[in-house]
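Purpose: get a first structural picture of the assembly so the mutagenesis plan has something to point at.
Setup: two entries, given in the order below. No constraints added.
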Amino acid sequence: NAGVTQTPKFQVLKTGQSMTLQCAQDMNHNSMYWYRQDPGMGLRLIYYSASEGTTDKGEVPNGYNVSRLNKREFSLRLESAAPSQTSVYFCASSYRSVDEAFFGQGTRLTVV
Amino acid sequence: GQQVMQIPQYQHVQEGEDFTTYCNSSTTLSNIQWYKQRPGGHPVFLIQLVKSGEVKKQKRLTFQFGEAKKNSSLHITATQTTDVGTYFCAGTTGTYKYIFGTGTRLKVLA
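Result (structure tokens, whole complex):
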């Protein structure tokens, strides 16, 4: 089992460029999440999907959009990247929203 | 909005010493989880606490949920170099989303 797979692992963008971070889980989980991690800030929830077909904003949704493509996949899109979006992005999933979350390996994004 | 704070932010201990990190929420929580993140790695689930006053143990780790369900602690007895990493608590008020604390980075000196 791969668990939670994120692509890409590393990315450098220029300000104003767009990109999509991909996330897929093979554990038949219902809930999926996108977090960003900045030094000294812990993990902050960007968007989450409690179940297939639903998405909701987290703590820091501005500048991002998400798509729950199917039960397995949950993508995060940056429409116009800004230097403030330089961060490590983690995707996570859980069977139910109250259960333990399994995290992907992370995507290190730098916006210059 | 809901806020979860952790103290201390950093802790350096000598191998064999004990370590405690504290988690405090601005609102009453329904559940709290603890995660460990090794340097350069991703968060890994340790435990979940649900009941008021609950205490759970995992070998040298002891987790506690406060009576008012607004605070929690993680205590490690006799730290080892393998305990190095950042420990996060994550709490929910039952709104389908967990808010993570700021984390405590533990360094263990051999």
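DSSP finds no helices and eleven strands in chain B.
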